[in-house]
Amino acid sequence: MAADWEEISKRKDRFLEKRESILKNKVTKLERRLFDVLITDFLSKIEVDEDGFIMNIDQNIKLFDALDNLLDAFMNSEHRALLNSYIKDLDGLSNFNAKYFGVFTDDGLSKSVRDRARNITLRSIGILPNGGIRRNGYIDQILKGSEIKTKVKNAAIKAVMGEVSKIDFRKNLKELVTTDETSGLFQKHYNTFIYDTYASVDRTETSLLAKELGMDSFFYAGGKINASRPFCLARQGGYILVEEALKWGTAEDDYEKYVKHDEIPNGGYENHSQGEFKGKPESYNPLQSMGGYRCIHRENYIPNEVAVMRDKTLKIENGKLTRVAL
Fold it and tell me: From start to end of the chain, where are the E strands?
């Protein structure tokens, strides 16, 4: 049984890594497409004077006024198509979670349990059970791309008011929209709002399924990379009670009971009395954010009977998993 769930967990990791990489490539292509649209449907129609500078005339002003509609149309067509592929990725993620938790049940994970966890998870980020995007939900706000549209419009206004040449405006626009694979307009947008949601959505769904199946602990899994932070390294490879994890990021976190890596001081906290650690987001939910921004670690929930075999400081009392001192 153990080998099965551990292998499924590894396969899910590979799936997430691949899907995020594919999404990043799609985002880069989306930026290039936006630049092409701006050149074809906007910049090419701008009038310039004999020296090549953009003129502050009615025709150009009308083009700038129409820029809102152009950007909205792009978001509702091409950006929506990209987000739809992201939503399909979340379905694939849910399939892995069903297989993982199905290992621990006699007849596999029931459809009702799976659907309930999936729908609650998707609803939390504004996705409907049928895969549609809920109006004014989280994903809908990403779709609208208000920050992206504002930056493009501000660049256009600056070009007119500052008497910028058409050639320089094109250059500035390209740098703004498609600089590189990390700092283009959409890449910044997705770095801030989307890429982390692969992990947070996964954690939300697995925590719901674990609760449904009566699992009180998880294995803190994930590799070590150069960017790994002390908070994660202190917990890596440990078996942690859910009730312990819920105290992360607070002064009540009694980390000395479960942290195995004594070489990392203060359980990875920069200020334990304030619950502060490097990478901790402003709005912190331990079971969703784990070690904070862009944390690659995950919680592998396991049955209580498996937990007591793997960690001798854990035992089952009155049907509940607890930690005892050796």
Answer: 217-221, 239-241, 298-302, 314-317, 320-323
